[in-house]
Amino acid sequence: MSWITNFLTSSIGRKLIMSLTGLFLIQFLLIHLIGNLQLLVDDGGEKFNLYAQFMTTNPVIKAASILLYAGILLHIIQGLLIWKQNSGSRNTRYAVSKNPNVDFSSKNMAWLGTIIMVFLILHLWQFWFKMKFGTVPPIDYNEGTGPVKDLYTLVAAAFKNPLYVIAYVIGMIVIALHLKHGFQSSFQTLGLNHKKYTPFIKGLGLIYSILVPLGFAIIPIYFYFFR
Amino acid sequence: MKLTLKIWKQKNNSSAGKFETYSVEADEHMSFLEMLDVLNQSLLEQKKEPVVFEHDCREGICGSCSMVINGQPHGPNKGTTACQLHMRYFKDGQTITIEPWRAKAFPIVKDLVVDRSAFDRIIQAGGYISVNTGQAQDGNAIPIEKGLASEAMDAATCIGCGACVAACPNASAMLFTSAKVSHLGLMPQGEIEHTKRVQSMVTQMDSEGFGNCSNVGVCEAECPKGISIENIARMNRQYIGSVFGSQTKVEKA
Ligand code: HEM
Ligand code: FES
Question: Which option is the CATH number for B117-252: 3.90.1150.180, 1.10.1060.10, 3.30.428.10, 3.20.20.105?
């Protein structure tokens, strides 16, 4: 094998992939949230549907989305490989194990990730798959774009089902926990630990991991109760 | 003080182990190892097999007294090795569970003794500096900035006991390896062989079967010498830096 494959299969190389793909997903989540908050605009979904139309047809966004699929897959596959390696590093478990002050998230990243994966499958099947491969009834706003797919009505219908609302809220709590550790951890993995900047990164990570999942969770709750 | 001890007994790495229960009468001024000495003395007098544990300096500098006491490597006291742990931190009538380090890379020799030669092999891979023999150089000939010297010194306090591996949920040896990489690489004498050192030590660490680092941080919390995970970050960036920024090619683990 060459030096590059040796590097990518080393413990630090594997973690570098986790960290870079994780950070990439983190920036995606923020953009995804900003776009989705347009669902809350009370205009019968016009703004959101035109935005969705743009996101699914613009060539730059289309290229970026391929990068996103690759990033998610790489993060998941690498995460599962690391998990397998880590669980093989100790044959006998401790009878008594006491870890004072250890963040719950940090020890359960793989479990949290697995739940996120299940949520992701539900989420993609529900909206992404239908948008891409299913038939979503068109609607025309006479804005010169022609008829666009009415994703808004699909979302609104889904979030009338309390089971979906609960699933989404749980999904967001799990993402919040994953990111509570993941955000700051990815910087440590990159080697960015600094007496001056690390407290700031940790603070920012905590704020991000609360606000972004909360922003997402508001959408199904709002639709269920107020639309 | 009267104590009940649940101690892991295991003949060797290929046989199955189990907990044995003992009672011992200890004094609160004893160290944890002295308490085990008292137990072993009474076991010998009863013609029973003593509990095998490792020790040497008994002053917290050799790193051999490895044992997990009530779920914590080196016991409940922060920044203390088992030999320096006093019995006054335990209560009369308490039950104490004692287990060996548990990691695939540290096979059990007997009872509480594990084979930590994986650490030796990591050191052999690059944990040294090459110096030509001859006259010792004047100590002050190479100026070293105080902050740097302190950081190197802090990393050099690592006694290689393996508590970091024992505490880590992934049994990762990143804290140990990074402490060694740091204490040598931060000094001008060690910086020369630095890019090669960080690669060969990480490669050796990986080939020993330790887990990966999830940045959990229990290693730092349980380290009897308080080695910081800042060293792990330093090793990460120096390893990545040496992979892409030097001519040295990473070898297969
Ligand atoms: C919303 C999507 C996700 C985001 C934003 C995200 C982000 C992150 C970040 C930033 C890290 C820290 C990397 C590091 O410590 O260097 C991480 C770690 C991890 N992620 Fe994700 N992740 C996501 C989804 C998933 C999924 C679906 C899995 C599925 C298995 C997963 C599994 C893991 C694992 C196992 C780790 C820990 C690796 C380790 O430190 O040992 N993640 N994630
Ligand atoms: S016996 Fe040497 S450190 Fe405990």
Answer: 1.10.1060.10
